[in-house]
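Study both lines:
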Amino acid sequence: MIWLMVLAIGLSSGFGYLVWFHAIESLPATLVAGFLALSPITAFVLSLILLDAAVTPSLLIATALVCSGIVCFARSNPHQ
């Protein structure tokens, strides 16, 4: 079971890097870099699904702050 998890992590990381480098090549780096903030959101969701983590008020506040930062970044348009 552990080797299957290691394989899954390796494949998903490899796929993530391929998508990341394709995005860096195709889009402005400043646009792509803003979506690095999705990492804590992904970790939060996966911890809920895979680890049955407890949802605390501080975790919800932190998630809301990260999401609002992503929304602010996505709505800004420095290229105009």
